[in-house]
């Protein structure tokens, strides 16, 4: 009788520590993420969520421990080249080309992936179907975030790294975000989210970061405040 081997985690955080501005944000973090898994980095603005997300993307090195993809250290140069092709990054800097149409803003990234035909369905799913021929500069902040999410869908990479993906979205937009995350996970995709706002994700692992850097409230902070309109 042969014993079935436990599948190797797609991503493994092995005793990881992370620093920001000479202060430790995380230490001794051990997390296994298999296909279909989700990790949420929760914390207030300034707590270091984006720094941790950049570490998981391989842009910053852990101050201790290792981040392993398929058992390989992502900071090794040969591994990182392959690992970064698995990543779909959504950041607060939206990289939207103001003078291009909504459709071309997604198609441009889609073509970089040598893929075709996903842009329009992605835009329609995100509620931007009637705006595909409008210039991107005409979009509201919420519509710009929906455009970013449509780009994530069109690029169709297995690991999503989402930095504050619900900021600027209305209630309907948040529901759409939760839906596309759930569907991506059903197909075996992995989702890692940094957020200070609640996002419903079934069976997600949650790491809470304490506040670290008191500072003045920014416009992005205000967007997350229900008492400011």
Automatic annotation (TrEMBL):
Q: Which InterPro entries match?
A: AAA+_ATPase, ABC_transporter-like_ATP-bd, ABC_transptr_haem_export_CcmA, P-loop_NTPase
What keywords would UniProt list here?
Answer: ATP-binding, Cytochrome c-type biogenesis, Membrane, Nucleotide-binding, Translocase, Transport
Q: Which GO terms describe its biological process?
A: cytochrome complex assembly
Q: Which PROSITE patterns does the record associate with it?
A: ABC_TRANSPORTER_2 (PS50893)
Please indicate which superkingdom the organism of origin belongs to: Eukaryota
Q: Which GO terms describe its molecular function?
A: ATP binding; ATP hydrolysis activity; transmembrane transporter activity
The name this protein goes by in its record: ABC transporter domain-containing protein
Organism of this sequence: Kalanchoe fedtschenkoi (Lavender scallops)
């Amino acid at each position: 009788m042969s014993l079935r081997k436990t599948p190797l985690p797609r991503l493994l955080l092995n005793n990881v520590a992370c620093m920001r501005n000479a202060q430790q944000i995380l230490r001794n973090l051990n997390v296994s993420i298999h296909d279909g898994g989700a990790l949420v980095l929760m914390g207030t603005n300034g707590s270091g969520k984006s720094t941790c997300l950049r570490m998981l993307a391989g842009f910053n090195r852990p101050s201790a421990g290792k981040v392993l993809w398929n058992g390989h250290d992502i900071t090794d140069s040969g591994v990182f080249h392959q690992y970064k092709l698995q990543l779909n990054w959504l950041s607060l800097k939206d990289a939207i080309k103001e003078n291009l149409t909504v459709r071309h803003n997604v198609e441009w990234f889609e073509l970089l992936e040598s893929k075709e035909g996903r842009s329009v369905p992605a835009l329609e799913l995100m509620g931007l179907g009637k705006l595909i021929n409008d210039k991107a500069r005409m979009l509201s902040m919420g519509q710009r975030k929906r455009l970013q999410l449509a780009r994530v869908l069109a690029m169709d990479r297995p690991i999503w790294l989402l930095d504050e993906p619900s900021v600027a979205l209305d209630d309907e937009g948040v529901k759409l975000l939760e839906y596309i995350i759930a569907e991506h996970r059903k197909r075996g995709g992995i989702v890692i989210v940094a957020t200070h706002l609640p996002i419903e994700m079934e069976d997600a692992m949650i790491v809470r970061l304490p506040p670290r850097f008191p500072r003045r409230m920014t416009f992005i902070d205000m967007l997350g405040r229900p008492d400011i309109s």
